[in-house]
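Board notes (copied after class):
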Amino acid sequence: MMEEFVKATLEQDVGRGDLYALVEPSVAATARIIAKSDGVTAGVEYINTLAKLEDFEINWNVHDGESFSKGDTLANISGTSHVLLRIERTLLNMLLHASSIATLTKKYAQIVEPYGVKLLDTRKTRPLLRVFEKYATRCGGAVNHRMGLDDSLMIKDTHLKTIEDLKLYIKKARNKIPFTAKIEVEAESFEMAKEAFEAGADIVMCDNMTPDQIREVVKYRDDNFSHILLEASGNISLQTIESYAKTGVDAISSGSLIHQANWIDLSMKMD
C-alpha cells in the first residue's frame, strides 16, 4: 500500500514526463533537506520507499518521531540531477505533510503524558490519506483510533437514533461482530453514559461534555464498572486538553491533530 501511494503521488506530479529533462543530459548531483522551522520528523518510511523506486540515496540525520530545529540538515541526498529534480516536490510534500501533523500531535502528547492518558486520533482525515495521516500522528506520539468502520463497532448519536433498545442491540452485536472487536458507545450526558455502561459497552465516549461532567462519569465508572474504558472527545484543543486529561479518563481523541496542523517549513537545496 505504501509503495502504491508513493507511486501515485509521484505520477501526479510528473505527468507525462519532466520537461526539464528534455533539455540537458543528467549529471551526478547531491542535495540537502533543510529545516526552516522547528518540528517533529515524520515521513521517513515513505521517502525511503521513494528512494528505492527512483534509485537515489538518502542518508537521514533524524528518524521518525525525532525533533529538529530551524537550520538543521534533516537528510543528505545523492543521485542524478534528473532524478533529484523530478522527485523534489513529491519528497517535500510527503515530508511536510507528515511532519506538520507530527509536530502538532507532539504538542498535544506532551500535555497529556504526565497524566497517563492516551492521545488518540480520529477518522477526520483527508480522503484517501487516512493511512498516511494516521502514520504521522503515531510519529508525533498519538495512538491510532479506528482506521475504519470495520475496526470496532462505535455507536454514535446518529446510530442511537435508529436503536430502540441499546442493551438488546449490543447483545445481538456480540453474536455478529468478530470476537476481538470492541463496542464503543457515544454519550453526551451522564444519563447516556450510565445507560451505555449498563448495556455492556466496552468503551464509553464522553462527547462534548465539560470536564466537570466527565469527572462525574469517571467516578460512577470507577465505583460500578471499573472494567469499562472512558474516552473524552469533542472540541478538544491545545488550550483545553489538559483539563480533560485531569478528569481520569483513559484516552482523549481529537481530530485537530490532523485537520488543524499548519505546514512547517522545509526545503531541498542542491549542492
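Comment from the instructor: Residues 81-112 form the longest helix (32 residues). The chain has two domains: 1-105+262-270, 110-260.
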